[in-house]
Amino acid sequence: MTVTSWNRLAATSVLLDGFHALKHAVRFGAEVPVAVAVDRAAALALAEELAPDVRDTLDELLTEVPESTYTSLVPRPHPTAVAALAVRPSRAANLDRLARIPRAAPVVVLDQPRNLGNAGAVIRLAAGFGATGVVTTGTLDPWHPTVVRGGAGLHFATAVERLTVPELPPGPLYALDPEGDDIRGVKLPDDAVLAFGSERSGLSAELRTRADHLLSLPMRPQVSSYNLATSVAMTLYHWSTGTGAPLQGRGELRD
Ligand SMILES: C[S@@+](CC[C@H](N)C(=O)[O-])C[C@H]1O[C@@H](n2cnc3c(N)ncnc32)[C@H](O)[C@@H]1O
């Protein structure tokens, strides 16, 4: 592995920063053309302890490099001194996964999010709950290196794509807003599209217009809102419990 070949691949790949990101990406089927470690034996020992299922794959993938080479490849050294490049899934493949009906688990939509850390945390949540995908609208790139870092390599466990509101996947659109009806009374279907507003201004007018149902998370009156990622966590948890009553038809909850 030369620095030149890394740099050539880096232009079209996703940086997996640290052992855990590499472990997750490999586990969820990412194509990893190159992976490096400052201490290969230590990385494999970590795999044996924490991820024996991917130990042999990492043994094949990892090349030991001097610390000076490793630090020249990554913007911020990771405590595990492991890094890799993974091939980003194609937009066509992601769109296909997002559009497929019937769907076994919801799609999460972040409507014009601003905070890269929130987006990473939401992708990690979506992976944990087995959500079909995470879609962002607006300018934030959900494959930005900081989002990938926050997602701990779990972008490969779900379909992550940026779309416009008219391009959102099919399925009943449940938009989360403190002014909506109490989510606890509503059973979220597996084909739901669950939308959350931006950190600063909430749901956009375009998304509100498109929404079939407006739902709220329980909250004391003097608190104005929850953090975006924690709202996604509560909503996915509610979906996973399968509780509440099914809803039929557009706008049934409103007015
Ligand atoms: C930080 S909040 C946005 C706050 C923003 N100032 C507003 O006016 O809505 C980000 C998103 O989290 C979700 N959210 C936060 N608290 C919620 C609640 N109590 N019920 C439903 N959704 C909530 C909503 O989707 C909201 O748009």
UniProtKB/TrEMBL annotation:
This is TrmH family RNA methyltransferase. Residues 107-237 form the tRNA/rRNA methyltransferase SpoU type domain. InterPro entries: Alpha/beta_knot_MTases, rRNA_Methyltransferase, SpoU_MeTrfase, tRNA_m1G_MTases_N. Keywords: Methyltransferase, Transferase. GO terms for biological process: methylation; RNA processing. One of its GO terms (molecular function) is RNA methyltransferase activity. The keyword Methyltransferase applies. It comes from the Bacteria. The keyword tRNA processing does not apply. It comes from Streptomyces muensis.
